[in-house]
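Feature request, filed as a ticket because there's no other form

It would be nice if the structure record came with a short human-readable summary line next to the tokens. Right now we just get the raw output. Example of a typical job, pasted below so the devs can see what we mean:
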Amino acid sequence: MSDVKPLIEESIEIDATPEAVWALVTDLPRMASWSPQVVKTIVRGDGISLGTRAVNINRRGFLVWPTRSKVVRLAPHTDFAFQVLDNNSVWSFQLEPTTAGTRVTQRREAPNGTTRISSVLVDKVLGGQDTFQSELRDGMRQTLRRIKADAER
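Raw output as currently delivered:
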């Protein structure tokens, strides 16, 4: 079994204000239009606040699986994070103002690894940690490019 990387991250510069980018990255149902893995996100309740819960439907080829998440960080226009309850990883978007707009960094944090069941599924069904984590990084790049395109319209 390969090790889970404690941190995977990608960044992009977007020609839009942090407020405009914030409105996009905190609109969880739109994640399906940006992420190559997310098919649908269902947010429980109205709006996004600390503790808001959501369900993602994810897909990779013929494989489809749900994940549950909870918003764990919410600092307007700077930091938004949710924890995937099924594997303990934390996904986040950090926004920093730049002279041209906003630098956005997307992260997948797993400082203590993931759950045993998640590790087994990744190793046995999703091609192993190295392959899956490489796909996550590629997916982050694609997600960020798509957010950039929407923000710069």
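Something like this underneath would help us a lot:
The beta strands are 7-14, 38-43, 53-60, 63-75, 79-84, 90-97, 102-109.
DSSP finds four helices and seven strands in the chain.
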